From TrEMBL:
It comes from Streptomyces parvus. Residues 1-21, 295-315 are annotated as: Disordered. Residues 295-306 have a biased composition (Basic and acidic residues). It comes from the Bacteria. This is Uncharacterized protein.
């Protein structure tokens, strides 16, 4: 059990047409249903259903879920308002209306989610008619994504950019943390530059701001003596000394995805990893990562992984650095609300009324514009998290990352062009191996009614072209074992050979009782399978007659063949 007491999530506020949603991270947003261009009855019904989902345990643990549904409801409201006879009551939401909405959605993944997500939200309420809920439950073909993994050069470019940005931030925060510890220990003389910097860092750690005054216009102004000591009043001289920026938090997310194959939602909501108390020497801490992926379904949301920091290349080293880089921000947030024990906490550069975080000036997890900040910082042309995850799981880790094996294969591996290209030589090699095995296991000698003129008799068949064997160089004669005659297209098998081959088949089978399975399969498996094929072609009746006609000469030939005396 956690050392601190459990904090029950605050219930949602539902005031008629206004619904307030507070998610697991403490972020708050308000939705005003009187903005929907629909009748009052529909506004109240949608607000009531919406508030049920926003309630603790209602299913929406993130503001992303409620915000996404809100925009779908806005689109649906505008559609209803544009009808010749707009619906006024719940019974006016008919199957015909829903089907018109469905048919007018744009093609692609956006329209697919508009239909499936909104239908899933509405159809759970029995206040709608059974026919309408059945229409909403009708399956539609899934829309495939064209998203592909990063090419090798793109992968290296993204990884290098993420490492450069996060490493710079980590070293910066690490250096200033050491300076703060020295100030707290009384190392610096009062009013010296180092002392003023330390005092600024203390204020920054406690309040999120360096010492300042509030101007008449409400804006903050850093005190002049601290501006001089710090070197400036910009973010790089003030709050960035102890906190990550939005782009730096995104760079850390990229590295976590790259290292552990997680998706953006899991990284965004990751709780702070804790060192296992019995992990051994303090020199090599082992961290327990508590992961949650709601889309996995009930009973399979949660997962734990252990990561040990045993050196520079160990997965746990990234966790150590992440904890150090976010230590001050996490301490500030958890001091305000101990339930907000998340790893990815960063300082908002422009905190204000639009900031949904409950602890100003900090934000938790990834926001919608985090990718834009990353692109501006790096100059890259694409947000990498989704493609990075596919690259890592399909091409590098090559195993499911919080997915079933079926999902991993069908969504991540099989549609990926790089996997398909890399699979060509493997498939070709497998096909060649299968062909070679089939050629060994299937009879290739030709069946004849009688002996042909010019054929040379062998212990197992007649040879029609001894000088040009497929098993030896042309013109030097066949050098293969007589057991290979059944695998040679030059061999001819006629009724005279049937008794001898039937007896050979039974003799090889009897060797199984005295040899290990692997040895028997390696030495006798292929000849036995070819004789099995011959038996199937001749029929059981012919085979039984052949066994009945085995002579002492046939037995002697077979005995010498099994003893290898013909190979001398």
């Amino acid at each position: 059990m956690p050392a601190e007491p459990h904090h029950r999530p605050a219930p949602r506020q539902h005031d008629g047409l206004k619904v307030e949603h507070r998610d697991k991270k403490g972020n708050i947003d308000t939705f005003e249903f009187d903005r929907l261009p629909i009748s009052a009855e529909l506004q109240h019904a949608f607000a009531r259903w919406f508030s049920e989902k926003c309630a603790p345990g209602g299913g929406w643990d993130s503001l992303k879920s409620s915000q996404a549904m809100w925009f779908r409801l806005l689109a649906f409201g505008r559609f209803c308002a544009g009808q010749e006879i707009p619906p006024q009551r719940l019974e006016d939401l008919t199957p015909a209306l829903w089907n018109r909405w469905r048919m007018r959605r744009p093609e692609g993944i956006y329209g697919y989610h508009q239909v499936t997500s909104l239908g899933g939200f509405l159809r759970k309420h029995a206040e709608l008619s059974e026919a309408t809920r059945s229409a909403m439950a009708k399956r539609i073909p899934a829309v495939g994504t064209k998203e592909t993994a990063l090419a090798p050069d793109e992968f290296q470019e993204v990884r290098a950019a993420a490492r450069r940005i996060f490493r710079s931030a980590h070293l910066r925060i690490q250096s200033n943390t050491a300076h703060l510890h020295q100030w707290r220990a009384g190392t610096f003389e009062p009013q010296t530059r180092d002392w003023l910097v330390g005092e600024s860092l203390e204020a920054l750690a406690q309040t999120g701001y360096v010492p300042h005054i509030i101007r008449n216009n409400g804006k903050k102004r850093t005190l002049p003596q601290y501006v001089t000591a710090l070197g400036g009043s910009g973010a790089q001289w003030t709050w960035k000394r102890l906190f990550l920026s939005r782009a730096e938090a995104y760079a850390l997310s990229v590295l976590l995805v790259m290292e552990f194959g997680l998706n953006a939602t899991v990284v965004s909501g990751m709780r702070t990893p804790r060192a296992i108390s019995d992990s051994g020497s303090d020199e090599f801490p082992t961290y327990r990562m508590e992961l949650e992926k709601p889309r996995r379904g009930a009973g399979r949301h949660f997962e734990t992984r252990n990561a040990t920091d045993s050196g520079a290349d160990a997965p746990g080293r990234l966790i150590t650095q992440a904890l150090e880089a976010t230590s001050h921000a996490r301490a500030f947030v958890t001091a305000a609300d101990s339930s907000l024990g998340f790893l990815l906490v960063w300082r908002n550069s422009l905190p204000g009324p639009r900031n949904l975080s409950p602890v100003t000036p900090f934000s938790i997890g990834l926001t919608k514009n985090a990718a834009d900040c990353w692109l501006n910082e790096t100059g890259l042309t694409g947000a990498p998290l989704r493609r990075m995850r596919k690259t890592v799981n399909a091409l590098h880790r090559r195993e499911p990352g919080q997915n079933s094996q079926e999902t991993h294969d069908s969504v991540y591996v099989l549609p990926e062009p790089q996997v398909q290209e890399a699979s060509v030589p493997i498939i070709a090699e497998g096909a060649e191996s299968a062909l070679a095995h089939a050629q060994q296991a299937v009879l290739r000698a030709q069946l004849a009614v009688s002996a042909e003129a010019g054929g040379q008799e062998t212990p197992t068949a007649d040879c029609s072209d001894y000088e040009n064997s497929p098993f030896s160089a042309p013109g030097i004669g066949c050098r293969a074992s007589f057991l290979m005659c059944t695998a040679c297209p030059n061999a001819r098998i006629h009724p005279k050979h049937h008794p001898r081959l039937a007896y050979l088949h039974r003799s090889i089978a009897s060797l199984r009782s005295v040899l290990e399975d692997q040895i028997w399969a390696e030495e006798w498996g292929s000849p036995f399978m070819r004789l099995e094929d011959l038996k199937a072609r001749l029929s059981d009746v012919v085979w039984s007659e052949a066994l009945a006609g085995v002579s002492s000469a046939d037995k002697e030939v077979v005995g010498r063949l099994l003893e290898g005396k013909y190979d001398l």
